[in-house]
Design goal:
mainly alpha; elongated
Length: 322
């Protein structure tokens, strides 16, 4: 908010001086338009400035016709608003409702209507909104520092969640508060919002790598939610669960690595082979727990599949050199 206030103050000052330099009448109106033109992101600033200029041109045309035909009466202002606003909504220019109203009142106060007056209003629009848009593009706070901090904390949370699952599989009497789940969800929302702002501040980039990263983590969180439900069904400690716990423990480290190591996937394949060599369940209780463990393995494969699809993969040779 502090940066936006500073940018607004600079835009107001610059637009007034530029309007005076070009000899535009009522230069203070350029400053008022500049206040409306400063926005939160570069792309949004460009979109809204276009909408405001287009809406204001519609307002200039309509108000000039109505005031010229019906006279400069107060009730004509209301009529102008009744006609103008639905037109702006229909043309998808509703962001320009305020600036178009400012222009309409300015024309009402500056009577009579002349070509020179209309050109002066257009000049005010271009100077005020143009200056604000330019300042918006020149400087916008970067989100990288915040995004890196959110990513680091999120990966710590995910690692903690996977470790907690591992500990439960080793000892079903282990109690976990689940606080990491709530924190991870909150961090995901913050990360997606920050990634959206970062993308909005990049004029040439259509999709942010940060957006892809947090979407990947969001998919994995959905998978973790399903795994938690399955883990709750594992009410007895079995050798099968202890073997699977080792995979989760390894994954709790891999989840913090930038690239896809494939170590957890290989451990899963080895575990599946071990499972096939184990004897069949001897009791209903063992059958239910092993069934839940099997479903947990399938969900874990889906979790790894998301990482494999999205993360950078490196070859065994690169891993040796690292």
């Amino acid at each position: 908010m502090g940066i936006r206030v500073i940018k607004t103050a600079v835009a107001v000052l610059a637009s007034i001086y530029i309007a005076q330099w070009f000899g535009v009448r009522s230069p203070l109106s350029a400053g008022l338009l500049a206040i409306l033109g400063v926005d939160v992101t570069k792309k949004k600033g460009l979109r809204t400035s276009f909408q405001r200029i287009a809406a204001s041109l519609v307002s200039v045309t309509l108000s000039s016709i109505l005031f010229g035909v019906l006279g400069f009466e107060i009730w004509v202002i209301s009529l102008c608003i009744l006609i103008l606003y639905p037109i702006l909504v229909r043309l998808k220019l509703k962001e320009g409702a305020v600036t178009s109203s400012v222009v309409m009142f300015h024309i009402f106060m500056a009577k009579p209507i002349t070509i020179d007056l209309i050109l002066n209003e257009v000049a005010l629009l271009l100077v005020g909104l143009g200056t604000a848009t330019l300042i918006n593009i020149v400087y916008m706070p970067r989100e990288d520092k915040q995004l890196h901090a959110i990513r680091k904390r999120l990966e710590v949370c995910l690692s903690g969640i996977l470790m907690q699952i591992s500990m439960h599989l080793k000892d079903t009497d282990y109690i976990w508060s689940g606080s990491e789940l709530l924190e991870a969800q909150e961090l995901l929302e913050q990360g997606l919002e920050a990634a959206r702002r970062s993308m909005e501040n990049s004029l040439l980039q259509e999709e942010s790598l940060w957006t892809s990263y947090f979407i990947m983590r969001n998919e994995q969180m959905d998978s973790i939610d399903r795994m938690i439900q399955l883990v709750a069904q594992v009410y007895k400690t079995l050798p099968h669960g202890e073997l699977l716990a080792a995979v989760f423990e390894r994954l709790s480290e891999d989840v913090k690595v930038d690239y896809y190591t494939g170590r957890s996937e290989k451990a899963m394949e080895s575990l599946i082979g071990s499972y096939r060599q184990m004897p069949l369940p001897l009791s209903r209780e063992e059958f239910e727990v092993r069934s839940a463990l099997l479903q947990l393995m399938m969900e874990l494969k889906a979790f790894l599949g998301v990482a494999k699809r999205e993360k950078k993969q490196i070859t065994a040779e690169t891993m040796k050199k690292a």
